[in-house]
Hints:
Structural class of chain B: mainly alpha
Largest sheet of chain B: none
Radius of gyration of chain A: 14 Å
Order of helices and strands of chain A: HEHHEEH
Radius of gyration of chain B: 35 Å
Oligomer: heterodimer
Largest interface: A-B, 19 and 22 residues
Strand order of the largest sheet of chain A: 1-3-2
Helix content of chain A: 40-55%
Distance between the termini of chain A: 18 Å
Number of strands of chain B: 0
Number of strands of chain A: 3
Helix content of chain B: over 70%
Shape of chain B: elongated
Largest sheet of chain A: 3 strands, antiparallel
Order of helices and strands of chain B: HHHHHH
Shape of chain A: elongated
Amino acid sequence: MNLTGPLERVLRALLEDPAAPRYGYELMKAAKLPSGTLYPMLARLQEQGLVTSAWETPAEEGQRPRRYYKLTGEGISTARLELAQAGLQSRREGPRTVAPGRTAEAF
Amino acid sequence: MGSVLDSLVADAPATLFVAKRMLELRDSGGVAERVIRLACRRLPASEREARAAEWAAELPAILADPDRNRVRRLLATTAFTADLFRGAWRLAPPVKAKKAPAVAADPHPPVASTRVIIENVTVRFVPREPRRGRWPWRQVRRNAEGNRDQPR
């Protein structure tokens, strides 16, 4: 997996609560990514088997079914490993600029 | 003041028409959904509907975002839908260049074909002994007729 800055942010957002399914706009806000970047990335992660998606009908009547994403078991371990490696690398090379407000020491 | 009232009264039918059209537009899914459907046209037919439904279902969440005021919500909706064109482009499978259908080897390669054309034109139209002066069109025509009449 080629861990880019946006991908790192998406993985961090999904890893905040790996068991909780997140919908697209929620992830957009958490990762601060535009829709044109997030959805292709989620599709790629899904193809790799790291993310799973499911349609869920909201509790409120009249609302449309929404697609929720969450990490698979393999996705959780892969994401943690990749982020840990990125953290180690950033410690060697200096501070990264891709994750504002976050530090690699968190992982 | 009077002029404003007059203009309002005069424009009332147009205002009512626009308001009605806007209500119709809202009921039919709104502009954003239409833009999403337009963006989804880049996707393969098998996943077009699912993607359109997924993205359109995000619109109420953006339009009801409590962290943003009304103007920023509208701007976020516009940015969300506009950027989906890029997203759909990235989601769409790459277009493969059309492969030319396999054909049998040309018995006359291009160079040979060109040579055949030049020979034919020369034999048919160009006089054997061109004279000085204007181009001898009559002789060219005569030669051509002569060549046509003569069996090869």
